[in-house]
Amino acid sequence: MNAYRTIAGAGSESLYTEKRSRFIGRAFPASSVEDAMGIVAEVKKEYNDARHVAWAYRLGTDDEATERASDDGEPSGSAGKPILGQIISRDLRNVAVTVVRYYGGVNLGTGGLAVAYKTAAGDALDLCEVRPVTLYARYRLRFPFDLINPVMMLLRSTGAETEKSDTDTEGYLWDIRVAREGREAFEKEASALYRLSLTLRDEKETPSL
User: Fold this and answer.
1) Pairwise CA distance, residues 74 & 61, whole Å
2) pLDDT category, 9, cuts 50, 70, 90?
3) How far apart are CA 115 and CA 173, in angstroms?
4) pLDDT at position 141, please?
5) What is the pLDDT of residue 74?
6) What secondary structure letter does DSSP report for 196?
7) Could you give the CA distance from residue 39 to residue 2 in angstroms, rounded to a whole number?
8) How confident is the model at residue 80 (pLDDT cuts 50, 70, 90)?
9) How would residue 12 be classed by pLDDT, with cut points 50, 70 and 90?
10) What is the 3-state secondary structure (H, E, C) of 101-168?
């Protein structure tokens, strides 16, 4: 996985009404299970007089996402699953969505509930700004002073970016990042430079500008 889509920040509340029941949707960025569950806890605290607070999250920057959903007392599959479906249909990662229901006194049935939760969740997500996130591999380069021009050419040809540069008595010490999709080409070109020491530091996500 080289990139994914997420939301830039919590959007405004969405409101969907069906037979006097009110469904309030909210979407949040979340980077971990702990983060997502903390959001759910805060929403439940804020709407402590509501009958149900259904929710779902989708996390991770690997090929397989971590997904979980809760009906919070509604009929099985009528709340959490439709919420999660809205996150998946927009191909979003690192997102948590909650939908608060205030019961209006009229039963909606499983199908009616699914439509209501789906609509409230989708409306909440539509209120958010979606941003792409590029994933990078980060390397440490060590090379002698006289190799500066070939290294600069390497960075330009592969789109690599310098994050930190330093020197010592032996030469340069640079920390760089390369978009994951260009990692193979970068390593291949770097291996052709004699006296260039290349170490993989880590692979982290960085929002695209």
Assistant:
1) 30
2) confident
3) 57
4) 95
5) 95
6) -
7) 27
8) very high
9) confident
10) EECCCCCCHHHHHHHHHHHHHHHHHHCCCEEEEEEEEEEEEEECHHHHHHHHHHHHHHCCEEEEEEEE
* Mean pLDDT calculated for residue range 99-107: 94
3-class secondary structure per residue, 40-72: HHHHHHHCCCCCEEEEEEEECCCCCCEEEEECC
Q: Are 194 and 119 in contact (CB under 8 A)?
A: no
Structure tokens at 16: 């969907």
Q: Residue 172: beta bridge partners?
A: 143, 167
Token pair of 184, please? 């193979």
Name 159's bridge partners: none
Instruction: Give SS3 for 204.
Output: strand
